[in-house]
């Protein structure tokens, strides 16, 4: 279960990483029932007083038309970007108002980031990582991060969030560069699973 504090604070931090303001108009072509649409999209925009432009269901050309007509900063997922960039009418649309956006769910391949910057004009695109149980974002790149950081990482921890990599099943941290289990704590961590409020015991 997530609290209002969990998701509103997380949404505000996400918006800060994207430098959203009340002047922004964000296209949200993803479902609102999912944390991407509801927190990274709707609530991130609303915490800064921006305008949300929802799209009932995703269709690449509908998104391009909406951006050209009434949007300044989009919220997109990597798979959606491919669909828009590959659309046969892509070059017919004026996307010059685009500045920033957010991708989540995986690293952004360098060729996709390059196309988003050069063909869509989104020079301040951010990449986020998290899970529903963490409200959902744990780490995010910033708008002024280098190209390399945005394609090789999922950013750094949001403010007021702690992250460490441990040996699976233990609290012991692994050496830098080693694989392990990601552990996080802060305002963003869920309160528990519904009707299962006991915390799991660390072995």
TrEMBL record:
Note whether Ligase occurs among the keywords: yes
Q: Does the keyword Plastid apply?
A: no
Q: Which UniProt keywords apply?
A: Ligase
Listed InterPro entries: AMP-dep_synth/lig_dom
Signal peptide position in this chain? none
Q: What is this protein called?
A: AMP-dependent synthetase/ligase domain-containing protein
- Cross-referenced Pfam families, in alphabetical order? AMP-binding
Please give the biological process terms from Gene Ontology that the record holds: fatty acid metabolic process
UniProt lists the family membership as follows: Belongs to the ATP-dependent AMP-binding enzyme family.
MF GO annotations = medium-chain fatty acid-CoA ligase activity
Query: Per the database record, which ranges form the AMP-dependent synthetase/ligase domain?
Result: 1-194
